[in-house]
Amino acid sequence: MTSTVVSRMMRLLAHDGSVPRAGAHLSDADVKELGNELDALRQEVLADLGAADARYIRRVIAAQRGLEVAGRALLFGASRRWAWWTGTACLTVAKALENMEIGHNVMHGQWDWMRDPKIHSTTWEWDNACPADQWKHAHNVLHHTYTNILGKDRDIGYTILRVNGAQPWHPVHLAQPFYNLLFAGLFELGNAVYDLGAQLESGEKTEEELKQGLADIGRKFARQALKDYVAFPVLAGRNARYVLTANLAANILRNAWVHTVIFCGHFPGDVDVFPETVLDGETRGQWYLRQLLGSADITGGPLLHLLTGNLSHQIEHHLFPDVPSNRLARIAPRVQEICARYGLPYHSGSFPRQVASHWGKVVRHAFPSRGKHWG
Predict the structure, then answer these.
(1) N or C: which end of the chain has fewer CB within 10 A?
(2) How far apart are CA 145 and CA 127, in angstroms?
């Protein structure tokens, strides 16, 4: 007999309110067993962590810092076009690595088991305008708890984009394909005020706490701007203009890359969005089911996975946010096998396919829908 909770959830997810979505065939026992299997997989990986994993993250950090030094050195001596392009490329990759494979994953606590105070979720401050503590609350606590639940997860369209038919339409959404491009280039600034916006809406913070949070954002943004747009250009002397434009370009390109990777994992056309009612009595197995149905992977090689911070394995990351990123590629085939055994979809596609899919959703939902529907 199918679970009443799961069946209700899947009916609510139906595009027209009547056709059950993937997963409605699972019984209570099936969902419980699914949760047990995924719990066991997580524990197996965590128990196996060791020296090889520690070497991995330290090597990535060393490579990232090497790329940044090389990029800045080239830009300081830039007098030819190739030096500017090469230096900018090095700096862009360094910033992407720092934000994705290092910052995002360190601040998730994936490397806390090493007990290295320099590579720890409580001490890491990333190269981004958003203060680490505010990002950890918005991302680790809110997003990963309420993944893809409309009304709870502010990552669904980041409050400015309509990406699901159940979201109310407003004429301003007609312009969202255009302002999404601007949002991509300024993504770190959107992140900077993101958590504060959530707390303002929820009323969690007092007026004094909100002012303090805004002051923290201002200080972090000022430090970032001073570093990239004042200090390094001044140190470059006659090459100040080259350094300034390269830093600006690297930040915009990094922002656009991060935006694209995140949208590819959360908004392709085949992922599900959930109503708040799924939280009623939600079990561990049902939480896992929600992560599976509400995420998508990007297929590709090791370099793509590295540059995405292994968020190309978004399904696995949502299932196991505290598992080190270097382990997700090895976990993915086992998760895929579990999905096949339980008759569940495993959403994945090439990078071009996922980009086209999420942009298609941004364009499609810029226009009013005929009736309220999910998906």
Answers:
(1) N
(2) 25
